[in-house]
Amino acid sequence: MSGRLPVVAVVGRPNVGKSTFFNRVVGRRLAIVDDRPGVTRDRNFARAEWAGRGFYIVDTGGMVEGSDVPLDRAIRAQAMAAVEQADVVLFVVDARTGVHPLDEMVAGVLRKSGKPILLLANKLDNLPHDEARHDFWGLGLGEPIPVSSISGKGSGDLLDRVIGLFPAEAEAGAGDDEIRVAVVGKPNVGKSSFVNRLLGEERVVVSEIAGTTRDSVDTPFQYHGRTLVFVDTAGLRRQSRVKDSIEYYSSLRTDQAVHDADVCIVMVDATETELHAQDVRIAQTAWDAGKGMILAVNKWDLVEKETMTAPDWEKAVRARIPYLQWVPILFTSALTGQRVRRCLDLVLEVQEQRLRRIDTHDVNEVLAKLLDHQPPPAYRGRRAKVRYATQVGVAPPTFALFCNFPKALAEHYIRFLHNGFREAWTFMGTPIRLRVRGGKGE
């Protein structure tokens, strides 16, 4: 990743304002911010730009050096992985509380990393008159740079220094040909394990505790010359199950991740034998948003094949939800790696279908056959005519139908045309839109 764009890692102990600074640089509230420490647990990637230089900035969980708590150790491992991948490390401290013993421990670890490190004395809202930052000279990481993540004071000067530390060649070859892939589903269906297995490393924290992932975590990945940005999202619960502000904002981030994605991998638990209402709602959200979709049936290795086979499962779910007949279904296991890599090929295929364009001549040829087979119903005693059709957009593919009486094309007739277009071109894994427009003679 760093061969494409430079990487900036934001690290520090809990509750010093790392996520607030991350949001300030990105320009929107991507990372969850809360007064309680430990809200950020995974590495959260986002693309940013300053003075014409593009880079990735990585928000990390608060480092608690010396803790034996499993989750603290996992968060520390994630933060250190971000440091190892970074071109520049931003060490954030809370200037209002002074030097904390954890600051000294984290500073000792960072000094051994060999990475360029900038020390950010955060929460200095009274700049340039506040001199509290000078206490941090003792950390041995050079000049403490005063900033206020809340107001943005000092952030511009800091970013000028950050881009000055970037490798000269780091931006060579950077491009925008990215496919954003959101991995969505209920809590604890194995989304993080699936992403880790796919990428071949522990990119996101995995725990048996449902709801460990809270932010939507972006991870760029190269495959067949394309950049796939995988977004491991928090599990979507029913609104009645969302208990506090952190879960509420996690749900919003996941919903936003779906709408920002190109392709959604909707993950369900094979051991639950059938789709729950929440699974259906998540899939419907992605489909209604016009996103490409792959249904990943995870934990397939745990299903007894005597009681349920893949064709049986597939037939049952497609009978219940008709639009899933156009969605590829992948029976996989994040634990064993079964068919996990096949998902990458499906992502490329589905995205290709989302961007597919059909020649206007071909569209009208198919339309004419459909109209001959089933003419449109009359409207107030007058004959309705669909004069012609053309594709007007992609992602998802969208067709305009020009009719003298648009109201004559009721929902059931639009569905008939929709299915006819599907039979002609399939558009695997992507919804299509049919828009009816008025024409002369109405």
Explain what the structure shows.
The structure is a single chain. The protein has helices at residues 18-26, 70-85, 101-111, 155-164, 191-199, 245-260, 277-288, 310-320, 342-354, 360-373, 411-425; strands spanning 7-11, 44-50, 53-59, 88-94, 117-122, 144-146, 178-185, 217-223, 226-232, 263-269, 292-298, 329-331, 386-393, 398-403, 433-438. β14, α11 and β15 (433-438) form a beta-alpha-beta unit. The model is unreliable at 33-42, 170-175, 202-216 and 236-252 (pLDDT under 50). α10 (360-373) packs across α11. Helices cover 31% and strands 21% of the residues. With 442 residues, the protein is of the alpha/beta class. It has 3 domains: 7-164, Rossmann fold, CATH 3.40.50; 178-354, 3-Layer(aba) Sandwich (Rossmann fold), CATH 3.40.50.300; 360-438, K homology (KH) domain (GMP Synthetase, Chain A, domain 3), CATH 3.30.300. The chain is built from 11 helices and 15 strands. The strands form 3 sheets. The protein has a 6-stranded mixed beta sheet, sandwiched between helices. A 6-stranded mixed beta sheet has the order 8-9-7-10-11-12, with helices on both faces.
End-to-end distance:
56 Å
Give the overall shape: elongated
CATH superfamily of the largest domain: P-loop containing nucleotide triphosphate hydrolases
Query: What is the arithmetic mean of pLDDT?
Result: 82
CATH class call of the largest domain: Alpha Beta
How big is the Rg? 26 Å
Low-confidence stretches: 33-42, 170-175, 202-216, 236-252
Named at the architecture level, the CATH assignment of the largest domain is: 3-Layer(aba) Sandwich
Q: How do the strands of the widest beta sheet line up side by side?
A: 2-3-1-4-5-6
Number of DSSP helical runs: 11
CATH topology of the largest domain: Rossmann fold
Structural class: alpha/beta
Beta-strand portion reads 15-25%
Give the tally of structural domains: 3
- Percent range for helical residues? 25-40%
